[in-house]
Amino acid sequence: MNDLYSRHRGVLPDWLALYYDEPLELTHGEGRHVWDSDGNKYLDFFGGILTTMTAHALPEVTKAVSEQAGRIIHSSTLYLNRPMVELAERIAQLSGIPDARVFFTTSGTEANDTALLLATTYRRSNTVLAMRNSYHGRSFSAVGITGNRSWSPTSLSPLQTLYVHGGVRTRGPFAGLDDRAFIDACVEDLKDVLGHTRPPAALIAEPIQGVGGFTSPPDGLYAAFREVLNVQGILWIADEVQTGWGRTGDHFWGWQAHARSGPPDMITFAKGIGNGASIGGVIARAEIMNCLDANSISTFGGTQITMAAGLANLTYLVEHDLQGNARRVGGLLIERLRAVAAQLPGVREVRGRGLMIGVELVKPGTDEADPQAASAVLEAAREGGLLIGKGGGHNTSALRIAPPLSLTVAEAEEGAAILERALRSTY
After folding, report:
1. What is the pLDDT of residues 241-252, one digit of tens each?
2. How far, rounded to the nearest angstrom, does the alpha carbon of residue 141 sit from its chain's CA centroid?
3. What's the burial of 379, exposed, middle or buried (CB within 10 Å: 0-12/13-18/19+)?
4. What global pTM score does this model have?
5. Alpha-helix residue ranges (DSSP H) falling in 242-396
6. What is the DSSP string of 46-58?
7. How far apart are CA 310 and CA 279, in angstroms?
8. At 236, which helix (H) or strand (E)?
9. What is the mean pLDDT of each run of 10 residues along the chain (427 residues)?
10. Cβ burial, residue 117 (10 Å; 0-12/13-18/19+)
């Protein structure tokens, strides 16, 4: 492993982050478990950054990919593509957007980039509203709307971005308010911002902020925002790259917790739909999707082999009610972790829904983020046989827990016990 690490450092960028003091090479997986090159077995509570959504080596997906690879792997969007049409039909129907059109990309970054192109073209404005503490990808335009300094390497951008309050419930100037007053204050902040700028193209928002540490507003915030946005025709883009496909348990899409004012104008998706295959995309109302007046294709978006994976994965997800499993098992897991947190002064909050759970760590007796503790818990959990993630806003101090949606109750208990030991060893 030291040799591979040295080779990695010799040819890859210094800013390409690796977890752990001794980085892992994962060689294979099955179900909710993975193995490293030394033969160590781990319970996987991060799923390749929420991407292995259903299970590792899911037979249905493996079979679909193998069979498609034996026919044709790729042709580009210049030719009719049956798997792409079939997956687009299913996603359009599931989206809740009327007269929906779907464009496939290879990643969530590219999906958000496409949504920004559509919104700014449709609205003839390059001003975009985004949430503080947000993350939308690593392309030039996506970095320009990312409200998280740790993931924003440049202030240059093709867009004018205005950041509004609301993505983080328990920090910031409105944290002390009750939910209703919090929403009202955030709406007033939005109105104030709109009063000082030319009409923006769109608001882009993650229903639950992923890289930001699994933070979220009270249910209904984006519905209230939508009522304000509609007055000026400003579009709403729901970034569902991490929240889509039933991960939150209560809903198939994260936006459905904010559904009072109707569906978004656009939804971006990626990660879990491919269960590891490289799929992203945009769902939009036809008039928005069709607003471009120049040719466009995607060489690798919608390629046959990834579409076969997506179709098999989505079918398995729906037929086995993995959304319901995320609700049931995730509910048990979050309550188990809250019981542990109540005994530890360094755990500020356990938050989330379904199988998307954040554990925010602070220096005991303070409200100050403790990134060193987060790193220590990450290492201790790995030593105990559990892989988790981390994230957070001003400082990376939130543990991110997002197992495959097929997680069993026994595995949830096992993972919670390992994480409890890791937390107790740190505090």
Report:
1. 999 999 999 999
2. 18
3. middle
4. 0.96
5. 286-289, 304-319, 322-341, 371-383
6. SHHHHTS-S-BT-
7. 8
8. strand 235-239
9. 90 95 97 97 97 98 98 96 98 97 98 98 98 95 92 90 96 96 98 95 98 97 98 98 98 97 97 97 98 94 98 98 98 98 96 98 95 97 98 91 98 98 95
10. middle
